[in-house]
Amino acid sequence: MTATAATKFELITTDGVARRGRLSTAHGEINTPAFMPVGTAGTVKAMMPEDVATTGAEIILGNTYHLMLRPTAERVARLGGLHKFMNWPKPILTDSGGYQVFSLSKRRTINEKGVTFQSHIDGAKVKLTPERSIEIQRLLGTNITMVLDECTEWPISEEDARKSMELSIRWAARCKTAFEQRPGFGLFGIVQGSMYPELRRESVAHLKNIGFEGYAIGGLAIGEPQEEMFEVLEYTVPALPKGRPHYLMGVGKPADIVGAVMRGIDMFDCVIPTRSGRTGQAFVRGGSLNLRNAKHVEDSRPLDVACRCQVCANYNRAYLHHLIKAGEMLAGMLLTFHNLHYYQDLMAQIRGSIESGTMSDFVTTFDREQRTGAVISETE
Fold first, then answer.
1. Are 87 and 372 in contact (CB under 8 A)?
2. Residue 84: inside a domain, yes or no?
3. Tens of pLDDT along 147-184?
4. Domain end position, chosen among 233, 253, 269
5. pLDDT for 307-341, tens place per residue?
6. What residues are labeled active site?
7. Pick from 188, 2, 211, 230: which is nearest to 95 by CA?
8. Which strand (E) or helix (H) includes residue 167?
9. Do residues 171 and 119 share a domain?
């Protein structure tokens, strides 16, 4: 069984294992490596959609679990689909709900048919099968649909990891059967297998046989050390189809992203930049700043002197510190905007470095700044 090229991925160039590509969908193109801001419930928290686009984002992530509960996929469909509903005309990828089900370990049961869980909103019993997950994502109208999988805990025994991986493969096959092929819309498979090389390679082999428009690596960024995550990538990514996008789910911090790009990853998503913005943390070259800290109370400098975002151009650290201490919602809005701009600027620098064949130089500089905090020191 082979996949129809419902979405088109063009591998433009490489620098070592790092890849520069372009993914075309019915709602526009995504330049890769790409970072997807998380818009779980139909909104990137503390941001207007227009401002998300201003940061440079070309695609956002929505979530099946949250949208199926509220406002429901059927209602979104009646109102014209998720793009129209949230006023985001660019591409959207939806997580199938597997990770949220994983996080509801005390509220759910899993069997061959799917998952039954209690809603975190009202406690109602809800069933989510592979077929229903695909149906929800079709009703939402998202460009990239993810298969329903079981995300395992870390650590986990090899025997339990195998059972889970094999269940996810059977679910993936059912998702492929249920998926309605349409030009500009694609279905991604998800590689599982925890930290076991043979299980990861088996998962890839099964998914390739089923055939997908893209391949995600799941079950990482759930507590394992960074070096273990990178190790999984080093033996998993080479087995993935080179002509399809490679997506590392739920990652991550800037250093995680740079390291994963160097190991062949094309797409990322994470709540870190938005969640950090709402809790007073700003990402800058060389690390991060805690704007709750009293040392910023009379600091008239921008967050990062080299940043070109409108927050750094118009607001200083003292004002942002004041907003946080005063409990003003504007603090989260401004810091979230800056953080998303930082992430998108990082991705643009990575793409440019791959294009120019200077990715190793970029990584050397990035690692030095992260290790020493040199740039932060210059502005402190």
1. no
2. yes
3. 999 988 999 999 999 999 999 999 999 999 999 999 99
4. 269
5. 999 999 999 999 999 999 999 999 999 999 999 99
6. 95, 269
7. 188
8. helix 158-178
9. yes
CATH of the domain at 93: 3.20.20.105
308: left (phi over 0), alpha (psi -120 to 50) or beta: alpha
Give the total number of structural domains in the chain.
2
Quote the CA–CA distance of 341 and 35 in Å, as a whole number. Answer: 11
CA-closest candidate to residue 196, choices 227, 242, 238, 165: 165
Mapped onto helix, strand or coil, the DSSP state of residue 92 is strand
231 Cβ neighbours under 8 A, 6+ residues apart: 195
Could you give the CA distance from residue 189 to residue 209 in angstroms, rounded to a whole number?
A: 11
Rounded Cα–Cα distance for residues 326 and 323 (Å):
5
Question: For residues 77 and 85, what is the distance between their CA atoms, to the nearest angstrom?
Answer: 9
The whole domain housing 122 covers: 9-269
Q: Is the pLDDT of residue 122 over 90?
A: yes
Give the chain's length.
380
Q: Is the dihedral of CA 334, 27, 43, 192 positive or negative?
A: negative
Domain match, 309 and 218 both? no
Residues 129 and 245 in one domain: yes
